Amino acid sequence: MSSMASSPLLASLLEAPLPESGIAWLDAARRGNREAAAAAGLPDTRVEAWKYTSLRALARHAFAGGDEAAVGRAVDRASFALPGVDGPRLVFVNGVFRADLSDLAALPDGVVLQPLSRALAEDPEPLRFVLSRHYRDVGDAFARINAASAVDGVVLRVGAGVRLAAPVQLVFAGAAAAPALAWHARNVIELGEGSALALVEQHLGEDAQSHLATLVSDIEVRERATLSHVLLQQAGGANLIRRNGLRLHAGAHASMHVLELGGAMVRHDLQVALVGDGARFDGRGVFMPHGRRHVDTQLAIRHEARDTASSAHWRGVASDRGRGVFRGAVLVAPGADGSDANLSNKNLLLSRDAEIDTKPELEIYADEVQAAHGATVGQLDERALFYLRSRGIGLAEARALLTGAFCRAVLGDIAGVPLREHLETLLMAQLPA
Amino acid sequence: MLKIENLHVRVAGKEILKGIDLEVRAGEVHAIMGPNGAGKSTLGNVLAGRDGYEVTAGTVAFNGVDLLAMAPEARAAAGVFLAFQYPVEIPGVNNTYFLRTALNAQRKQRGEKDLDSMQFLKLVREKLKVMNLPDDLLHRAVNEGFSGGEKKRNEIFQMALLEPQLAILDETDSGLDIDALKQVAAGVNLLRAPTRGFLMITHYQRLLDYVVPDFVHVLAGGRIVESGDKSLAMRLEETGYGGIAERRPAGAGA
Q1: pLDDT of A151 strictly over 80
Q2: Domain B2-85+146-246 has CATH 3.10.105.10
Q3: Which of A324, B81, B165, B185 is the one with CA 20 to 30 A from A153?
């Protein structure tokens, strides 16, 4: 048995009323996923994908389903304002769409951006394939729960050849409520052939809340389309479990920058499939668990077509009793000849009680493949620290300077300078004093 | 300015310095010469405050204050500068940012006001020009991708910017071709001042052709075994360090 069959967490998630849409296939899919989640339970640490992230503590908590007051909850607009990001925006608070905080006025022709609930009401059929999915693995417990319970999220479609100039902003905020809530969001994003999109996604929350949020996104990047995706996580005290699935078709390119700055228990499954010849993925990430926070990144990249390329460089900094987990798995499937994969995860431990577990994996079944992977866990370079101090820079400032430089190394190629500088400032503010 | 008395230092349990006595007054240039393993770099590192050096006896006073009790950054603010034998590459830390942080950190410790970016850049450009270094150095990461010669010149440039009272040059001449050596020496000579003292640690005499010291000391086996003027350096060039380790400490008698 590799699961915790019953727990207050699972019981509360399964007790929440199953949403009814009146759409037969959707209700059937929700029911099926709910039943599968109930039958399989939550994964324990014997499940490989959950080896370093125990759900034992989280499982002791029950969460209320749905927040009826979400529409009226006060959310400071300044909390999601970002420099250089002033385009179309969708905002969700505790999983509920907030038209008052969103901005759909600046939407260019050829772009659909709307809440999932509205898209389903208007025309559910285009969403049928992606929302009918059944998850097979015991490690997929939260994807199942999300599939059963999510009633809203983002639908974003960029038409063929449409190249958006302004970034699209997606905000998922958790607002304090008692008792703690479970909320869910389901996002479906598609970039048409030859289109271009910059996406800025924010997961926000106050320290005072301890909700459980699940977010599942499917992002389809069609032939020769380009996606630039920045994911900023400042979820405060939230438990945040996310799955991003990207599929890149021939000649498509996706670049992604992930900043994990908050969250009590954070899980990110990033699954990238390079399904068309010449597709390319460039991922960069920083995770910074401090206090007693736990941040787990599970990156899986599959090269399934010829001449595909991926680079993934993640950096972790753990302080206090913070715990980081990184698993990076690159698979080059038979036939994906001429592929190029480069994966690294470098980590800094800033305190004795901090811990980071890292595991890069490479499986190659094709020919003429260039692949490199590596992982390190270490402390700040004593020689560099002394060099800085010998020039008059105090110990704390010298440490911050080196730690900041370590993290910034993976943010250098974020396209917008004001946004990049802002993210660097957030990152520096997060460093332990 | 700097007064070292009976300094004993241990590194990893092994005694490296076995009783150093040395005084550097303002305006003086002292050269410390000696064979490899004599403890020359240990002396520089102990004065700058590097970890891993255990002082087992003796004192070091800097302008009358116990230098050994101070943190490295406090020593820097007080006016001690070490030009590293192996300057450290720091990827991701921009040179301009580093220099400004260092200068303002020192100023803060001395109770002086921060330089704003205009004042700072003006000062930096002025010093770059004096050191004959290209402006693009400011936009690069600290020492990253610098050639050996650029690293050493960057050390002297930092010294010019930070204007220390006591400059310790740890084998600044090593690994330099003759042109780079001349540039480094010219930079050092420009900084010679009646208010500033120098401690130049070197294995070879050739730097001293360009930066003429007031005093030369021979460090061997953890002790200063001979002191003199620049002619001592020239004599060493002829005879080498052979046999020096057996000499008695200077002034210790026969």
Answers
A1: yes
A2: no
A3: A324
